[in-house]
Specification:
Strand order of the largest sheet: 2-1-3-4-5
Number of helices: 11
Low-confidence stretches: 18-30
Helix content: 40-55%
Strand content: 15-25%
Mean pLDDT: 84
Shape: elongated
Largest sheet: 5 strands, parallel
CATH superfamily of the largest domain: Response regulator
Radius of gyration: 23 Å
CATH class of the largest domain: Alpha Beta
Order of helices and strands: HEHEHEHEHEHHEEEEHEHHHEE
Number of domains: 2
CATH architecture of the largest domain: 3-Layer(aba) Sandwich
């Protein structure tokens, strides 16, 4: 009898350790996932942040839509929790602006708000919200929805190949080609070209480009002249297609879609 009990205890311990390892692994994987919280109520935002941190997610809190949008110019979150009634720029207008940005169009947005009328919910979805939760919210329900969005398979066809004219960027291999011939780009040149193509038709200021950590990394000090040199190299490597990268004097660069 004692022997059976010891075997049972060993099996139970193995199961507990395995479950703990699974949870630890999940939390480790989530550590790279950033959730932006736009909420002007300090208590609510802190509770949301603490709960998500305990699940292994990174969080960043903003008190209004303008703060969130400014942050997103340099860092793109994996998911956004958005209150509606905020000062300076409310959640509805913020969501509209998010959906106009090519880099942010596919980011899941969950409204968390006290506005509970049917028309409010409809507007929330019409402006691009992926879900709409009415306060007070259940932490378990919110977490389940967040996991559903972040675990959803992405459309590989759409996100892995970026094209403009005869230029193709393969986002998997970080390789570029023109008329199916390989173009030798550095990683920085590739990411700079990616930013310009994704924002084609829009001027990207030098300051906006400097703030894009995805291009430069966290630790480098970047000067405006650095960007100018990289753009010059890009134009040369893209041959005749390089003419579409236009300089906007005193501001930055644009890929001209009307040329």
């Amino acid at each position: 009898m004692m022997r059976k009990y010891k075997i049972f205890v060993k099996i139970l311990l193995i199961f507990i350790n395995f479950t703990f390892f699974q949870q630890k692994l999940l939390n480790t994987l989530r550590m790279n996932e950033l959730i932006a919280i736009a909420e002007d109520d300090e208590d609510i935002s802190e509770i949301l942040s603490i709960n998500l941190n305990q699940e292994g997610y990174k969080t960043k809190i903003f008190r209004n839509g303008l703060e969130l949008l400014n942050f997103c110019k340099s860092v793109i979150p994996d998911l956004i929790l958005l209150d509606i009634m905020m000062p300076k720029l409310d959640g509805v207008e913020t969501c509209k602006m998010i959906r106009k940005e090519s880099d942010l169009q596919d980011i899941p947005v969950i409204f968390i708000t006290a506005k509970s009328s049917e028309s409010d919910i409809v507007v929330g979805h019409e402006v691009g919200g992926n879900d709409y939760l009415i306060k007070p919210i259940s932490s378990k329900v919110l977490l389940a929805k967040i996991k559903r969005f972040l675990n959803k398979p992405k459309n590989i066809t759409n996100i892995n190949v970026l094209t403009f004219k005869d230029i193709k960027l393969d986002m998997n291999s970080y390789s570029a080609s023109r008329k199916d011939e390989n173009i030798e780009l550095t990683r920085t040149e590739f990411l700079l070209l990616e930013a310009l193509i994704k924002n084609r038709g829009r001027v990207l200021s030098r300051d906006q480009l400097i703030k894009r950590k995805r291009i430069w990394g966290d630790d480098k000090i970047i000067y405006e002249r650095t960007i100018d040199v990289h753009v010059k190299n890009l134009r040369e490597k893209l041959a005749s297609t390089g003419k579409y990268i236009k300089t906007v004097r005193g501001i930055g660069y644009i890929i001209d879609i009307n040329d």
